[in-house]
Amino acid sequence: MLLGLLLVLSVALEGCAAPADEADPGRGAGGGTVSVPPPAESGSVPQARIGTPAASQRIRFVPTEVVLPGGAAATVVPAGTVGGRLVVPDAVRRVGWWDGGAQAGDPFGAVVLAGHVDSATEGIGYFARLLRIRVGETVVLRGDGHSASYRVSSVVEVPKDALATRSGAFEQTGDHRLSLITCAGAFDAARGGYASNLLVTAVPLGLAK
After folding, report:
1. Residue 139 belongs to a domain with what CATH number?
2. Which of 67, 116, 150, 194 could form a Cys-Cys staple with 125, CB 3.0–4.6 A?
3. Domain for residue 41, yes or no?
4. Residue 167 counted as domain residue
5. Structural domain boundaries enclosing 190
């Protein structure tokens, strides 16, 4: 049974994995999906002016690789939505980039990367390293020949029912930042998931290159 991540981006977090009776038989609790809120109603956000980009316009890119402190790297793949649910990669050594969030180098909003901490079939996941990450350390995103560096500003364990509503991990307003999310806390065998989530927030070290 997959012991990985299940994040809920709607009203409340259901936990790192769905209840056993919702899991795909033989595949693992939750199936690596995440509930995603519906798109904002048309007209609810003022349209931005469209102008001619300047030659000095900042670089922004979709991350395809993440490098954590110590130099270990992992492939990052887009995590889209199917039926209103974000599909996180099943492979525990890969990380999903939420394509509803910011890109690396954007001026505002959170770049959200989510991954599994472990798996009964694949062992320790790449994001298990987040359990040892410290404030002040550097995380690097790469993609399309560019890179962006971020300094870790906070590491917090968030109750499963607070990640979406109070953590700010998925907000696309405010200063640009990086949100790294995996499972944490005690494992609940009855539910097939962890009790909470680990949220690592990092702020950009200058502009993307």
Report:
1. 2.40.260.10
2. 116
3. no
4. yes
5. 20-36+58-204
CA-based nearest residue to 201, from 141, 85, 125, 113: 113
pLDDT (0 to 100) of residue 18: 33
Cβ atoms of residues 6 and 30 within 8 Å: yes
Specify whether the CB–CB gap between 197 and 17 falls below 8 A: no
- Enter the pTM of the model: 0.74
For CA atoms 77, 187, 132, 167, the dihedral sign is: positive
Confidence at residue 144, expressed as pLDDT on a 0 to 100 scale = 93
Distance from CA of residue 29 to its chain's centroid? 19
**151, β-bridge pairs:** 138, 203
The answer to whether residue 4 sits within a structural domain is no
What is residue 24's predicted lDDT score, i.e. its pLDDT?
36
Encoded amino acid at 157, one letter: E
For the chain, the distance separating the N- and C-terminal CA atoms, rounded to the nearest angstrom, is 41
When divided into structural domains, the chain yields a total of 1
Q: Count the Cβ atoms, other than its own, within 10 Å of residue 86.
A: 23
Which pLDDT does position 94 carry in this prediction? Answer: 95
d(CA 159, CA 156): 10
**What's the CA gap between 73 and 136, in Å, rounded?**
19
